Amino acid sequence: SENGVEICVRDHGPGIPKTELENILKPFYRPDGPRSRANRDKGFGLGLSLCAVIMKAHQGTIKIESEIGRGALVRLVFPA
């Protein structure tokens, strides 16, 4: 893109509530609700926070868009 190199990753899972998006990149953060209860033993809440640290180290950005029932889109933009 004109902003640099852009990588988009989309899933078709349950989605992330809009109220959770501002916290989803924080270390050890896992959303409350059925989505996290079903996967309580399947993670520590570090994956997306590590992605955010890596993007910052490369002067890039990470943005997450999501809609309940339609999945999420993670957009990584590395500067040109």
Task: Write up what this structure looks like.
By secondary structure, the protein is of the alpha+beta class. 20% of the residues lie in helices and 28% in strands. It has helices at 34-38, 47-57; strands at 5-11, 61-67, 71-78. The chain has a three-stranded antiparallel beta sheet. The longest helix is centred in the middle third of the chain and has 11 residues, at 47-57. The model has no long low-confidence stretch (mean pLDDT 88).
List the helices and strands and how they pair.
Elements: E1 5-11, H1 34-38, H2 47-57, E2 61-67, E3 71-78
Brief summary:
By secondary structure, the chain is α+β, with helices and mostly antiparallel strands.
How large is the share of residues in beta strands?
25-35%
Termini separation (Å)? Answer: 9 Å
- Strand ordering within the main sheet: 1-3-2
Mean pLDDT: 88
Secondary-structure element order, N to C:
EHHEE
Structural class: alpha+beta
What is the total tally of β strands? 3
Which stretches of 5+ consecutive residues score pLDDT under 50?
Answer: none
Proportion in helices: 10-25%
Instruction: Please give the count of helices.
Output: 2
Choose one word for the global shape: globular
Biggest sheet record: 3 strands, antiparallel
Q: Tell me the Rg in angstroms.
A: 13 Å
Core attributes:
3-stranded antiparallel sheet, 2 helices, globular
